[in-house]
UniProtKB/TrEMBL annotation:
Assigned keywords, A-Z: Aminotransferase, Transferase
Family: Belongs to the class-I pyridoxal-phosphate-dependent aminotransferase family.
InterPro entries: Aminotransferase_I/II_large, LL-DAP_aminotransferase, NHTrfase_class1_PyrdxlP-BS, PyrdxlP-dep_Trfase, PyrdxlP-dep_Trfase_major, PyrdxlP-dep_Trfase_small
Cofactor: pyridoxal 5'-phosphate
Membrane spanning stretches: none
Domain of life: Bacteria
Biological source species: Pseudovibrio japonicus
Record's protein name: Aminotransferase
Enzyme Commission numbers on file: 2.6.1.-
Every Aminotransferase class I/classII large domain range: 31-384
Name of the coding gene: aatC
Top EC class, one word: transferase
GO terms of molecular function: transaminase activity
Amino acid sequence: MDDFHKTRRLPPYVFEQVNRLKAKARAAGADIVDMGMGNPDLPTPQHIVDKLVETVQNPRTHRYSASKGIPGLRKAQAGYYERRFGVKLNPDTQVVATLGSKEGFANMAQAITAPGDVVLVPNPSYPIHAFGFLMAGGSLRSIPANPGPELFDALERAVVHSIPKPIAIILCFPANPTASVADLDFYRDVVAFARKHEIYVLSDLAYSEIYFGDVPPPSILQVEGAMDIAVEFTSLSKTFSMPGWRMGFAVGNERLIAALARVKSYLDYGAFTPIQVAAAAALNGPDDCIRETRAIYKKRRDVLIDSFGRAGWDIPAPEASMFAWAPIPEQFRHLGSLEFSKLLIEKADVAVAPGIGFGEHGEGFVRLGLVENEQRIRQAARSIRKFFEEADSDSKELSKSDA
């Protein structure tokens, strides 16, 4: 594999090392509490499943579908944006259905990137944000993952020092993996900067509905002028607990949407039509299931922060997303996030995602997914507490013997 140009550009997938260790432990009979992958464990709401079952009975729906999404689905996504954000979209020219937001990002990268093009990517960041452009032949320049003056300083430096000038800025709020959030004032500043320097903005809003405060996360497209330079990616995976259905969207700037639609037309025929019909039913249907899902994640977050804190691991409470971004406890920091993650599997039967897997600036942290129930989260906390206590005891014994 190393002989191929594009795979040579990709670093080792560090999550695979953790996954192998996790599989080995399970094969040996260990009960692993798995908080490593952001893989929702909640069932898809019944009315969405019922629509899928109803539609799949019609043989006509088994034929090739529409690459950019069936008209009813694109209208449903436009309706969601108008209700939720007050943003009007033309379903024919400003909405494309994607096979999850991951595929949308990867194919947008293929559509707009020429060899050597510079793209500004948060670090740490969800891997496809960086490696979609790397595989497309682009060059990456890191920017801070959290909104604030440091990010804008980095943008200014990038415009001055990057040759050629950057073509795009990637944003992700609520952020994966850091769970940080952005407000409309931040987006206004980004839009002003991007329009001034003629740079596109690609915004990942996959966690728009998983928030725990009173203010819902905004869309960059709410900002006046954003439609000139921005495309936003959303997904039904987390909002409706539909990760395996692979249903997402790209919306916004017509030129970018047209480029993405053209690339997709050569690569796929879109998702299976019954999935698209069921996805439209999700978007057009009642939103009480979204509120229930949000409440479950909030309760899990609270249990995680409380129980892990009691176990001796202080973790900042995330304001949004289905993740906690946890600093490695001081006594284990020298190990690095990958070795600490391996140790948690071996000694505590708990799986987490090492921060280094999200970029070098993720080192010193691990990401914990709220994808186990409250009882299992407390079980993980008890195991971690025991592991910490044993590690402290071993450390004291070692200190005595050294003395």
